[in-house]
Amino acid sequence: SQQGEEDPQALSIQEGENATMNCSYKTSINNLQWYRQNSGRGLVHLILIRSNEREKHSGRLRVTLDTSKESSSLLITASRAADTASYFCATFNQGGKLIFGQGTELSVKP
Amino acid sequence: GAGVSQSPRYKVAKRGQDVALRCDPISGHVSLFWYQQALGQGPEFLTYFQNEAQLDKSGLPSDRFFAERPEGSVSTLKIQRTQQEDSAVYLCASSPRVQGYGNQPQHFGDGTRLSIL
Question: Of the four, A19, A76, B59, B90, which is 20 to 30 A from A37 by CA?
Answer without folding.
Answer: B59
